[in-house]
Amino acid sequence: MLASALIVLACGSSDQTVDGFSSATWATIQTLSPLPALPADSTNAFADEARAAAFGQRLFFEKTYSGPLAVGNDGTNGGLGSAGDTGKVSCASCHDASGWFLDDRSRPANTSLGAGWMPRRAPSLVDVAFYRWFGWAGRFDTLWSAAIGCVENEEALASSRLSLDHVIYAKYRADYDAVFPTPIDPALDPTAPDASRFPPTGMPKASPTAPDGPWETMTPADQDIANRIFANAGKALEAYVRLLTSRNTPFDRYVAGDRAAISTQAKQGLGLFAGKAACVACHDGPFMTDEKFHVTGVGQDDGGPHAPPMDNGRSDAVPALLASPFNSSGPYSDDRSSALLRGVSQTPDELGAFRTKDLRHAAMVGPYMHAGQYAGLPDVANFYNEGGDDPGHYAGTKDPLMVPLNLSADEQGAIVAFLQTLTGDAMPANLRTDTSAP
Questions:
Q1: Given 63, 192, 199, 275, which residue has the most CB atoms within 10 angstroms?
Q2: Other CB atoms within 10 Å distance of the CB of residue 408
Q3: Cα(335)–Cα(345) distance, rounded to whole angstroms?
């Protein structure tokens, strides 16, 4: 496969028709640009509603419902408060709106610090709506389910769906009712005569053998109501995140006809990307990802002090995805027949596999890999040039595509120069603004 890609894509043939690239290579380059319109999400009927996006932006910055911090701020770790503090974490805490909506706060930066230390790094949300799978290992098959996935994670927001539902009722009832056809249940008012239907906090217990909690005291009908509000919160968050799209990169302008938009060195890197280095074998299409999962041999021990010794990647994500009531086939999907999960099962080759990361705005989102293993793009280029790490440093079996590339230092530098042309327009100020209610 790799050999055939090199043969088809190699540049430098006698048929150099476009700015020094052969017609075959230029045809490949054209498949990488421009970024198309956002794909529709049939599982979220509110994905492109302006009122939903405005509500989602408010929830993105909302902290009130977050649970107690397990890790306090010692002045160097980027913590959000003292251990035990509540109401300190929001989505924006690990997806900083002042930059490229990624974690610029945690120290060390390899993995992210929310209520506690997470095992992976929070990635950028810019252009994330173009993905087919969400999360480093594809734990979610829709953006709206990914958006609420952190709420009940002890290391992220350490909260619960009932906690969020109550905050929505108390602070955003009008926003919610303006978007969704069924008004939020008035029993969420703590002064309502039937307020006991919805405990102030709670979520399903972790396992059938765990002791019952507040969630298990609720009727199935009320659990469904609470779940629907929770899912709708995710759908509003998705509507907001879908607005975080960056276009107009120098590379896009180059492909469109501005031959001076990128440097000579970047053009050399582009030729390598589409040819000798065969990067397009996985980073293809205008979003520059094959949307598949690969074991690239990233050493887990390079992920800093808070990364786990091993990470099973996709293998652990699939069972949780299939079991979730919030997946695309579940009762809270607006298109249960979408078939997004058709053929998905846990397979041995997915042990240690992670989703191919897109490369747009790559220069802005380091450190790189799922646990921040590499500080800069030159480190990433060197990692791929060496064909990944040695066995024993990662879970699973390395993908056959991961072989040494034998690139010179200048060639690696040229690929980095090309990657630096993939940064588009920054997000507008109105989307960076904290609109959460006081």
A1: 275
A2: 9
A3: 20
